[in-house]
């Protein structure tokens, strides 16, 4: 059981570092490269129409890069999704810090 607890601490540290690095990684993703990529949305590929989730990845990346106008143009739901993501991200970081 001590072995699991020891590895649990390492996993928790890796998770914490990953949470801190994720926004930095997203900040440096070039949005023009991402815009040229083919969509993987099944609804868009099969029916030819965009679903409510189409463009949310690009939108979140633009929001992380502080380009809120482009984020809103990619997907209007960014107004709801991004604050929730930021809230969950901060809540997870606080939870990990409080455990230590």
Describe this protein's structure.
With 100 residues, the chain is mostly helical. The protein has one domain (2-99). Helix content is 76%, strand content 0%. It has 6 helices and no strands. Helix 4 packs antiparallel against helix 5 (68-74). The two termini are 20 Å apart. The model has no long low-confidence stretch (mean pLDDT 86).
List the helices and strands and how they pair.
Elements: H1 2-27, H2 31-36, H3 42-47, H4 56-64, H5 68-74, H6 78-99
* Uncertain residue segments: none
**Number of helical runs?**
6
Helix-strand topology string: HHHHHH
Radius of gyration: 17 Å
Key features?
100 residues; mainly alpha; 6 helices
Brief synopsis:
The chain is mainly α.
